[in-house]
Amino acid sequence: MSTTSRSGYESLTIGYLLIAFAASLLIAWAAADWWLLLPIFMIAAGAFYVLLGATTRPPEPGKRSYTSGAYNVFWGGTIMLLGVIWFLNREYPDNVPLLVAIFIIWVGAVAVALSLPRLRRRPA
């Protein structure tokens, strides 16, 4: 990936995260609950990285890429899921085993999804 493209992704990310932080700050202020700041920001940032990963072109075969769509989708989804879990635990306390199970299911589902393309390429 060229340096120009890389700096474009960096600028886009920094700009969006600043806007998401400001929006999270305003939502927490309007709700008069400052503990909402982090989960709302995590949900917004995670959604951004999932969308960024879903729209990123795969690298050409044999070339390394600065951004990997699978990497962004995994970590963006994980950050978003942690924000949702935090929010749900705050709204409906004492559901920790269910929330931990949801997180483990997420990690397992992503591991299976990311291994499928490698299994399809393997000769029979």
Strand segment count: 0
pLDDT averaged residue by residue:
85
Question: What is the share of helical residues?
Answer: over 70%
> Sheet with the most strands?
none
Structural category = mainly alpha
Distance between the termini: 33 Å
Strand content: under 5%
Low-confidence stretches: none
Tally of helical runs: 4
- CA-based shape: flat
What is Rg? 17 Å
List the domain count as a whole number: 1
Secondary-structure element string = HHHH
List descriptors.
124 residues; single chain; 4 helices; mainly alpha; flat
Topology, please?
Elements: H1 3-31, H2 37-55, H3 69-91, H4 96-121
Question: Can you describe what's shown?
Answer:
The mean pLDDT is 85. The protein has 4 helices and no strands. The chain has one domain (3-121). Helix 2 runs antiparallel to helix 3 (69-91) and helix 3 (69-91) runs antiparallel to helix 4 (96-121). Helix content is 78%, strand content 0%. The chain has helices at residues 3-31, 37-55, 69-91, 96-121. It has 124 residues and is an all-alpha fold.
